[in-house]
Each structure stands twice: as structure tokens, then as C-alpha cells.
Amino acid sequence: MKHFNIFLVAVVLFSACKNKEQKTTVAEEQSVPDFVVAFGSCNMSQEPNPFWDDILQENPDVWIWGGDIVYADTDDVDRLRSIYAMQDTVAGYNKLRNEVPIIGTWDDHDFGVNDGGSDFAIKAESQQVFLDFMRVPQDSERRSQEGVYASHDYEVPEGKIKVIVLDTRYFRSDLIEDEDSNKRYKPTMDSTATVLGEVQWKWLENELNGSDADFNLIMSSIQVLSGEHGFETWGNFPLEVEKLEQTITQSGAKGVIILSGDRHISEFSRAEVHGLSYPLVDFTSSGLTHSYFSFSGEPNKHRVGEVVSDKSYGIINLNIKDKEAEFKIMGDNGEVLQELKQSY
What we know:
By secondary structure, the protein is an alpha/beta fold. Helix content is 28%, strand content 24%. It contains eight helices and 15 strands. The protein has helices at 2-29, 52-57, 77-88, 91-99, 108-111, 123-133, 198-209, 238-251; strands spanning 35-40, 62-66, 102-105, 150-156, 159-165, 176-177, 185-186, 215-219, 256-260, 266-271, 280-284, 303-308, 313-319, 324-330, 336-343. The chain is globular, with a radius of gyration of 22 Å. Residues 50-291 form the PhoD-like phosphatase metallophosphatase domain. It comes from Flagellimonas okinawensis.
């Protein structure tokens, strides 16, 4: 019996060592990303956000607000400022802000009016409140320009990442209501209609043309590739979609990825663009505190996988050496709700 016990102990120790070796091998095979981006949109400051601790666990290099940071819907500047201040009191967000760089853009509800565009009366004042919340210095050029668009450059030992943040509100032309179907809006072929406005378009072209980054992420608060649902989307301005695709292609910029929000759903869209050597991905992540839980389907010819209608946030792991991006729709407690890998 004594000999049997010695044999059993030996087997257990051998198995433990073998398992340890296997785990080490698996861990070694898992590549550590060179740069981690976390982003999300549609956040009500008065509602619980379960994700701030999870986001920190991902150890992101940057957090990008995709718009609707707060739900203000007001032309009262003091009220707008007070609602932003409420978000600043959220403990989990404060911890994130103290540990991770935070950048981003606005959408309609933090801009100040649902589905709002260029005709919003206090857009200039709203811009300053937004920049205050984002802690943009008073002497920044962004304080004197029209619109909240900006670019941010990051460098790691393996390479460079550029994040281009667009403003799809300040200059956007009027939407056309669709009275002939159950959709809210319909596309316009008016060549003067715009999403970005002349100055921002020129700026975007310069940013992409002059970029030597290994990955170029474009944050658009509204979806770019999903354009059939009839809500807000670049698809309501098809000539602008064509212009964006041509701008990306002609620039020669590497690894262009589109991020978007707004819709209270999360999904991956992917399209082959003529002249572009890699597929264009639009990663929609929305929303953080509330979602389209009654979602029952909508067309999107570019969709990859399924729509996630649960609350979620987005993670992009960038591997510069392998020229690969891993996109993950994340739920609470580190749950991966859906993922997509793309080579560039």
C-alpha cells in the first residue's frame, strides 16, 4: 500500500508539471497586442455603467468616446454643463480617466439636440462645454476652430497609431424625412449636402495623406457602412460615403479602420472598396448604459456575424508586426460577445 501511494504521488506530480508546461506553451502562443483601444458610446450619466472596471482590466492605451457621452438634449448651456459634471462624479469613470488617456467626439444628445446638425443654435457654445469636459487646454487650436474634430498620434516600440476623431454634427446638412416608408430618413443625391463640411473634409484629407502610421482609426459617431436601416447614417449621404472611400484609398494610408456608435446595438460591417488593398471594417459599439433590447432585425449588406443588442463596449487589439487587428464586442465581467480578426 505504501508503494502504491508513492506511485500515485509521482503520477500526480508528473501530471501537474505536464499541465503547467501546456499552459505555458498556450500563454506563449497568445500574442500580446502592441496597442489596445477601448471605445464606446451612448452613456447616461444617471444610469449605472457596469463596464468601467472591465475596461481597466483590458489595460487599454486609450479610451475613445464615440458620442452621446451624456444625454442632455438642451439648448441651455448651464444645464448642458451640469449634465457633463454629473458624468465627472462617476467613480469608475474617474478611475479610468486617471489611468488612461481619454479622447473622443460627440453625437447628437451631447451636441444638444436629437438628430441635430448644422442649424443647431448653440453649437459653438456647446463645443466649448464639450472641450471643457474633455479637458482640452484653453490655448488649444481646437478652441478656435469650428467643430470638435481632432487627430491623436501614438507611438510604441513596434510602430505608430493615429486616431482621427470626426465631427459629424457641426456641419452636417439637413436630413430628409422618408414619408413613403417606415424608415425615418431617406438618402439624398444633392451634391451640396455634406456630413463633414468643406474645412473638415480638407483637414481629413491632409491627416490621411500625411500619415505614416501603421494603423489609422477613424472615429465617426454615426455608422458609415451600414446605410439601409433608415436611421442616422452616412448612408443618408451616399455621395459623402463615396468621397470618404475615395479619400481613404487615394491617401495610401495603412490599416484604416472605422469606429462608430449611436445605434444602441453593436455589430461589425466590412466592405471591399475598389482600390483598397484590404477590406474596410466599420466597428459599431453602442450602448454603454442602455441598448436596443427589442431589436428584431434590420438590413445591412456589409454585416459580419450577428447584431449584439446587449449593453457592450468595444476593444481593438492591434498587432503591428503581424499587421492584424482583433475586434471584440465586450459584455460585463470580460465576456466576449462577438469577435472578428482582420489582416492588413
